[in-house]
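Mods, move this if it's the wrong board.
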Amino acid sequence: MELTRIMQAGRQVIERYGASGFRISGTIFLGPVLVFPDRTLDWPDAEISIEGLAPVTEHGDIELLLLGLGRRMAPVAAQLRTPLKAAGIALEAMDTGAACRTYNLLIAEDRRVAAALLPPV
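Not the wrong board. Structure tokens:
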């Protein structure tokens, strides 16, 4: 799905998403990704655990993590929420399309947001 293009200098913007991956600030990523305001990383294992999301906690400047879980939302265990909260990061789980749209809106507001996204297959 094509998203409205909102370009901010130096900010990662999710332009498109689909079953094969994402286009973020003009770059194609096949498969899952971790999107930060300043960079996007491949997330090859897409492990939804504190270890799999270590780049988010190591980034040091994130206050909200959007977790895009594909086509459907699912509950997230306290074992993930608790250590993120201890690191000062709130977690919101949703379907990937909603996560992409929410990320773009919040990044346009210059919020400290990241997104961990699974392709909607």
